[in-house]
Amino acid sequence: MTLYKNLTISQKQIVWAWCFLAVPAVFYVTIRFYPTANAILVSFQDWNLLGTRTWTGIDNYVKLFNDPVFWKVFKNTFLYLIIGTPVSLIIAFIVAYQIDKVRFMHGTIRALYFIPFMTSAVAMAWVWRWFYQPVPVGVFNNFLATLAIPQIEFLNSTTNALPSILAPAIWAGLGFQIIIFMAGLRSIPQTYYEAARIDGVSPMATLWEITLPLLKPTIVFLVVFSSIGFLRIFDQVFNMTTNNPGGPLNSTKPLVLMIYDTAFNGFDMGYAAAQTVVLFLVLLVVSLLQLRILRDR
Amino acid sequence: MATVSIKNLVKSYGKTEVLHGINLDVADGEFVVLVGPSGCGKSTTLRMIAGLEDITSGEIHIGGELVNHREPKERNIAMVFQNYAIYPHMSVRKNIGFGLRTSKASKAEKAARIDEVAELLSMTDLLDRRPNQLSGGQRQRVAIGRAMVRDPSAFLFDEPLSNLDAQLRTQMRLEIKKLHQRVGNTIIFVTHDQVEAMTMADRIVIMKDGHIQQVGTPYDVFHKPTNKFVAQFIGAPSMNMIEGSLADGIVTLEGGLQIPIDTSSTHRGPVTLGLRPDDLLVSSQDGQFEGQVNVLEPLGSETLVYVSVAGKELIAKASGRTPPVLGSTIKLNAAPENMHLFDSATGEALQ
Fold first, then answer.
1. Which of residues 145-164 of B touch A (CB under 8 A)?
2. B237 upstream amide cis, omega within 30 of 0
3. In 10 A of CB B299, how many CB atoms?
4. Which of A144, B136, B145, B318 has its CA 20 to 30 A from that of A237?
């Protein structure tokens, strides 16, 4: 106790800071860093979850590189990212931009858009799966039938399945993105728009020259955030294709689902770990690239 | 350049009327300042002239043309905002040039115009900077530059100096006045600071609760206020107001004190006697008022003296070098021609 008393005020503050920091630090080390390091280690080993680990060097990575399914899955994952992120951001911006101008039932409309974000992804995936069924069950095909348009195989076609699964994923994230966009729009001072009106700048030019540049921090945040979300897509795919996860013919399988499959159906932990390391590197590279490209110069 | 004329201007938000029929004529090249306490409608009036607020009823003419239903850009006015409204993501050059986007001039002409304005505001070396690299006063100048670049017929200023510190405010006040003398455009300037109004205006419009109280030159509003509000609003410290009653050229104050007054008014009954602290001087011999010094506020060149006279505290001015002693009893004197009389019931000035 005397030891503590003899410390200066700033030293005491450091002691206290570390006391509080110890809890999350221990948590992160045991729950995050240790498993991460272990996963990287396992990716160089052969392990079936029960037996002994045997050292295999880079065999898992070589196998991954030569696996056609991996490249298919890799392509799928990037399709989710490349279609999902821009489409969701554009829709979210348009909706936020319009809601921002609406005074009538503003709160209710905003809440309606936010509800999907709070709904369980599993429940939502099953509802959408039901929407996609053929006549007489599926809502979409019923609607098409009344217009005398031929049936569309939403989930059973290798070309339609991926966009069909992406649609509810985009819809689910929309509420969050809209709220963030609206907060960004609200933070732009009204006088900027008034000054533009006095200068006679057209609404389109105002949008491109004032609104979007001033929204840049919001856009950067949402691009990085939603990219990570789409790269890690799993719930929607798994639940909408339960009888053949990632099907048909791996056409909807994302990297996370492949990892899950390899680890808990194939019990090839080393191979799954190698895939995880690849996913980690992809997430890291994509995020850093986006931050660099969109950085404020 | 143009005249601005406002006729019976009314503004209502729902059922609440905030402007009650304003009439004002601004001559070509005139510098008019709208001044008043918060909520008096001065900014609303300005925003209606700019076209940023709808007109409930009445007419606004700019350059002789009715502009009630014109978009802001078609009114050929420019506005400087309190927070400057300069875009943080654009250089100073782009900010100033932003108003020229819609103009049909060639690129070279636009660039020349931007340089000319920058030269006029002596900020040529700042053109390539970003707003976050500028001081408050420089940002203010960019905002003025953006307004000037289109050569509008009238400038509207909405409390542009409120965000500056006291010293910079004094400096920018002078710069804006000099600029007006050089370019000679019509200016309508809104402020809540009566010192700004007095120092800059050709004519001052004093507003309160959506009504114009008085329109006049700085001399008029200071020396011939039309009512008690104007008398107390203009001038710092505020005019002393003493209740009394008038009969036959003599005001009898509440304490029984009788003050002969220089008036031609035949009004009889309750009046308010107004005395500016500048006109109420400490006297060594005779004085109309006598009282004890409560507080002294030294200002350097002069000292404000708070004196209690017959239960009321009056503010007087004394010399800065030889102020009266705190707690002492002093005599105060005011010349009859410097006294103001107001009808206590209506608040209107009596001649």
1. 146, 150
2. yes
3. 9
4. A144
Q: Is residue B345 part of a domain?
A: yes
Domain that includes residue B179, residue range: 4-225
Compute the nearest-CA separation of B102 from chain A (Å).
7
Please write the tens of the pLDDT for every residue from A73-124: 999 999 999 999 999 999 999 999 999 888 888 888 888 888 888 888 899 9
Q: Are residues A106 and A214 in the same domain?
A: yes
pTM for this entry: 0.80
Taking the C-alpha atoms of residue B60 and residue B85, their distance in angstroms, rounded to an integer, is: 25
Is any Cβ of chain A less than 8 angstroms from the Cβ of B285? no
Same domain, A150 and A85: yes
> What are the phi and psi torsion angles at A221 (to 5°)?
-60, -45
**CA nearest A217 in B: which residue?**
B89
The SS3 assignment for A58 reads coil
Q: Are residues B209 and B309 in the same domain?
A: no
- This complex has an ipTM of 0.82
Q: What is the CATH number of the domain that holds B143?
A: 3.40.50.300
Instruction: Please enumerate in sequence order all residues whose Cβ is within 8 A of that of A81, keeping only pairs 6 or more positions apart, or say none.
Output: A227, A230, A231, A286
Which residues 80-119 of B have a C-beta within 8 angstroms of A?
81-83, 85, 87-89, 98-99, 101-102
CA–CA separation, B263 vs B336, rounded Å? Answer: 9
Q: Is the dihedral of CA B241, B244, B248, B250 positive or negative?
A: negative
Does some domain include residue B54? Answer: yes
Q: Are B156 and A199 in contact (CB under 8 A)?
A: no
- A32 and A171 together in one domain: no
Query: Nearest by CB to B85, which of A192, A200, A202?
Result: A192
Contact status of A189 with chain B (Cβ, < 8 Å): yes
Q: Do A198 and B88 touch (CB under 8 A)?
A: no
In chain B, the number of structural domains is: 2
Is residue A61, in this structure, part of any structural domain at all?
no
Phi, psi of B229 (to 5 degrees): -60, -50
- For residue A219, what are the domain limits? 66-294
Domain count across chain A: 2
- pLDDT tens-digit readout, A17-75: 999 999 999 999 999 999 999 989 988 988 888 888 888 888 888 888 888 888 999 99
- Cα B281 from Cα B298, distance rounded (Å): 15
Nearest to A189 among B50, B74, B83 (CB): B83
